[in-house]
Records
---
Amino acid sequence: MGNLNTTSSAQVVLPENRSYHVRFDSISSLPFHLAELGVNFDHCLIVTDTNVGDLYQATLVRKLEGAGASVHSFRLPAGESSKSPELLALIYDFALSKGISRITPIIALGGGVVGDIAGFAAATLLRGLPLIHVPTSLVAQVDSSIGGKTGYNHSAGKNLIGAFYQPLLVLSDADTLVTLPDREWTSGMAEAIKHSLIYDDRFFSWIEDNLDAILRREASVVASFVAQAASIKCNVVSKDEKESGLRMILNFGHTFGHALERSLGYGNITHGEAVAIGMRAALFLSSTRDVHEIDRIELGRIDRVLSSIPVPDIPESVSIDALCASMNTDKKRTTASLRFVLLRRLGQAYTTIDVPNEHVRAAWQTALDR
Ligand code: GLY
């Protein structure tokens, strides 16, 4: 059970002095890392939620105050419904009432919801405040805190309003993952497995070898699992910050997954569960190609790993017709045809718009066992 990656940091490399590190370290080390970066945190704001705030806010505030900071904390209600214009307005009101200036850092302490909305607040308050992510969920540590996507939901759909706004630092503490509910852990696993499938066959083999330990969240593997998955995200974002090319491969399984989330109703399936099912569908499509058809042995290996992610039953009332119709409303749709991310082989993804409708239907049937 070796640790393929024992690094204590990964880096997003960007032009114009905007590169930043993902530090794999304790929450308590935040003042040290801020000081090392030269960030002025004499006065700072923490945005968190009611769940994460109960667990980690006091520690973080104590450490920052111990280093001389004056800290104000704002708590959102936990859950996706907080990614709303109403909650954003409350963050604005709170921040402006505390006398912020353009050097006041916003520290986003929490999972993807907190990171997205606090990130957007940081991007827009006073035309941009320093942003620090302290992600505490697996999805946030391996995916959403890295790469600068911020935003909130509109009644017309999720994440329809937002901005790319990169943080100065991501501080990722694997110890916070022990308190995650099981369902959030396995949902986050889907995104980390996705990173291995699209980019790094050695990481996939490591996951295969350590699958039971990862499922049990054994301390001996968790930190390495997070670091390897986060490093892949850093590499992809460094090569394509604004998703004009390579970064699209991070959407492997998402064209199908988003359709499932929309059709079932958000809250009835997690994003990671929908992506896990979506990846099975995308793998089926990958096996139907005339060129780049993926190897059967690799398909079997991937299927075994994906099967370890528990997913809810999709009721027959959610028809394949409805799912296909829902795919056509995806916001990531950039051309007249739908874009799919497929695998050429383990660790190598490509995008295509050239997929016959009957193959898409067959992919749904296979992924949903119908
Ligand atoms: N979660 C996909 C991306 O950040 O591009």
---
Amino acid sequence: VRHFLSLNDLEDHEIADLLERARAVEASPRSDVLRHRVFGLVFFNPSLRTLASSQAAMAQLGGSSFVVTPGQGTWGWEFRPGAVMDGAAAEHVKEAVPVLGQYADVLGVRAFAGGTSLEEDLSEPVLQAFVRESPRPVVNLESAMDHPCQALADWKTLDDEGVPRRGGRLVLSWAYHPKPLPLAVAAATASMAARRGMDVTLLRPEGYEFPSALQARVHGEAAKGGGSFRETDQRTEALSGAHALYVKSFQSPALYGRTEEERALRERHSDWRVSEAWFAPAAPQALFLHCLPLRRNVKVADEVLDGPRSRVIRQAANRLHVQKAVLLRLLGVGRAAAI
Ligand code: CP
């Protein structure tokens, strides 16, 4: 069974095929090519864009979808092998996923990081359980350490905007957030941009260095794509000549799961809020990017979000085109038939 779990798993020609399909369905958005096909969506966490774009993608291609939110109107799920299920969870993943596979042609799953054990989150326990148990292709709709649909949409946005691949400079900046957020989007963005051939700088305070496993992953993608990756806490130097500033908050990897210590460190950096002044050393038309949702005037000032640099709506629009491209590829629909 072919899955869509990470851009890191794909060959260059497969990424190019997905981007080409996304452009084709953007030009010709509605057809019947997925008639009678069903996308089963399992969301352990909230969503606006991923859920809505997945359902809209199926509807616009003639198919349909269903949504399961474990523990909220459907049974709670157990994942531990050998568990004595005498608690809240009434359903085990070993039955739940094969059952859903009887109803759907492809399954999507959103399961954020637990946020207490970095080692466990790096092992992607929920996503891997789906892969193990599913008789159908699985789409990663944001896991503990990856968000490939967002990353592919962002790749397309950079292409749409004419941001250079080789020689393009993307700064991925940490920003303050009142909650300890997962690393998934930051890891996916850095990997995507490095694979696209860009020079990627992670701008973050001390204590927010990528864990070594993620550093290795981004360096690996840079080696494949001709890009580069480095980290710094020097904002002016990092942003010098940058073509795009992508902002994402995440909890300190150094203090992962150490709630009070992590919060104290994060609060010390509550002034890491993007304003127009940040762009002074950047390229004149430098873009502002964010996957959304985004807390206005906490992470980013209105002047940036409402100004000419922001491409956040374009990024969200591309989620729809990319979602269609992924579904068409996984369901084996030829490119000509899709348009
Ligand atoms: N960017 C993104 O995945 O948005 P949602 O969390 O709303 O799906």
